[in-house]
Design a protein that fits this description.
Length: 482
């Protein structure tokens, strides 16, 4: 089966053609580890995970690299401001190294909670300083750099194709105000190496041929991706916010350094929006002050995979509207899938147990039409909402034998990773005391009768007893607050 991916370079869906037959290299821009990742950040790691699992199923050997940015990411994208790690260290009177280690751990734990397959090693920018210096030296030898008072800069005017990814128009690009320009020649030039300033002691700094300092954020990704995936590799992923600056600069410096095309397919995930509004201003971001962490959802009693379901239920190139209601609906849907699977599992022998790791790892091309349909959904630019719909339709199909349903569910689990065979929460819910169950039944009846005052009264009563109710079209679900 062919895999098509929407390539930001061409703004089209293209059939995936690997550089090396049977292999796929993927680089995903990782977090800057000075604070917690929010769920908007985490969303952008779900689709590369599905991509990786789909590629594996198609028989590719996948090498996936996610980096850790632990130095060089400044508070302003215009090479101004403070290093985010150094600032956090100063504010908290702590070691920048400790902060990086702490938030790297939090990040990895969040990925694991979302069933994201974490590569065995995540390269850190601070662990790859010589590689970055070597690349800057290469650029300097090619005449692509110049010195300013505060660092070594990439001269974007020397790279004729600058801005191709973002389709930045050449005119107007180079004009900037004096403030924005600093010592830069062109507005789109960017720092490759920044000098440590004389008046503030940095915790993270290194000697270089140009003086003591630290690397720029963009050069990190080029140096690390090339080290592990080669000068030219298949797929690079990130958020849409990386298109105009970070990825544009990665392409410019990488192609200037090697003279080769850098990456064949650029995939970008869209923002998570807080609320119903499609307004971009409502995107979740640190500067917007509307951050939600995965841990907060867990503290509210949610299973992390409810968020994964929510993320999968929107196409990665669409905005994801995050509301409490949407998360509740995603959680109820996830439980609904498990209930259906357990239901058919009861009829088929030995299906109540989750498949082993090995059985979950999808290695065979599907023989069944429904499995092929689900795979085709994912092969169509990772259409996860359609894949979920395919799974739902099959599980609800009364004519489909239980064994086939279970096989499809196992197949889907290998790609979507929703712990579909974990029935522990269903069992816990069924352990609800009779008296609580009775109140819930009364509330549902009141709601059906449109007696909302009574329904609210009973809902509050349940809340006092430590239970919340989620309503769906065909019924309700009782959740125990943990
Ligand atoms: Zn990056």
């Amino acid at each position: 089966m062919e895999l098509t991916l929407f390539n930001t370079l061409s703004r089209k869906k293209e059939v995936f053609q690997p550089i090396k037959s049977g292999e796929a290299g993927i680089y995903t821009c990782g977090p800057t580890v000075y604070a917690h990742a929010h769920i908007g950040n985490l969303r952008s790691y779900v689709f590369p995970d599905v991509l990786k699992k789909t590629l594996r199923l198609l028989g590719y050997q996948v090498l996936h690299v996610i980096n850790i940015t632990d130095v060089g990411h400044l508070t302003s994208n215009a090479d101004e401001g403070e290093d985010k790690l150094e600032r956090a260290a100063r504010q908290q009177a702590r070691s920048a190294w400790d902060i990086a280690a702490e938030y790297t751990e939090h990040y990895l734990r969040d990925l694991r909670r979302l069933n994201i397959d974490v590569p065995p090693d995540l390269p850190r920018a601070t662990g790859h300083i010589p590689e970055q210096i070597a690349m800057i030296e290469k650029l300097a030898a090619g005449g692509y750099t110049y010195d300013t008072e505060d660092g070594i800069y990439f001269d974007s005017a020397r790279f004729p194709d600058y801005g191709r990814l973002a389709r930045l128009k050449a005119e107007g690009l180079q004009e900037g105000s004096r403030v924005e320009m600093g010592g830069k020649r062109n507005k789109t030039d960017f720092a490759l190496w920044k000098f440590s300033s004389a008046d503030a002691q940095r915790q993270m700094e290194w000697e270089s041929p140009w003086g003591k300092g630290f690397p720029g954020w963009h050069i990190e990704c080029s140096a690390m991706s090339m080290k592990y995936l080669g000068e030219r590799f298949d797929i690079h992923t990130g958020g849409t916010d990386h298109i105009p600056v970070h990825h544009t600069n990665e392409i410019a410096q990488s192609e200037a350094a090697t003279g080769k095309p850098f990456v064949n397919y650029w995939l970008h995930g869209e923002y998570l929006i807080v609320g119903e509004d499609k307004d971009r201003d409502k995107r979740m971001g640190k500067s917007e002050g509307n951050l939600l962490r995965l841990q907060q959802l867990i503290d509210e009693g949610y299973e992390p995979l409810a968020f994964r379901y929510l993320a999968l239920n929107a196409h990665y190139r669409n905005y994801l509207n995050f509301t409490d209601q949407a998360l509740k609906a995603a959680d109820a849907a996830l439980m609904g899938l498990r209930r259906l699977i357990r239901g058919v599992g009861g009829e088929a022998a030995g299906a109540a147990e989750a498949p082993s790791e090995e059985a979950q790892a999808p290695v065979e091309t599907p023989k069944d039409g429904r499995e092929a349909a689900l795979l085709a959904d994912l092969c169509d630019d990772l259409n996860t909402p359609r894949a979920l719909a395919t799974l739902w339709t099959a599980l609800r199909d009364e004519r489909l034998p239980a064994g086939k349903k279970l096989a499809l569910a196992g197949f889907a689990e290998g790609l979507l990773s929703l712990n579909l065979f974990d029935f522990s929460r269903l069992e816990a819910q069924e352990a609800v005391p009779d008296v609580i169950r009775e109140i819930a039944e009364q509330r549902w009846a009141a709601r059906q009768a449109k007696d909302y005052a009574e329904s609210d009264r009973l809902r509050n009563l349940l809340a006092k007893e430590g239970f919340s109710v989620q309503d769906g079209k065909e019924g309700y679900q009782l959740l125990k607050f943990s």
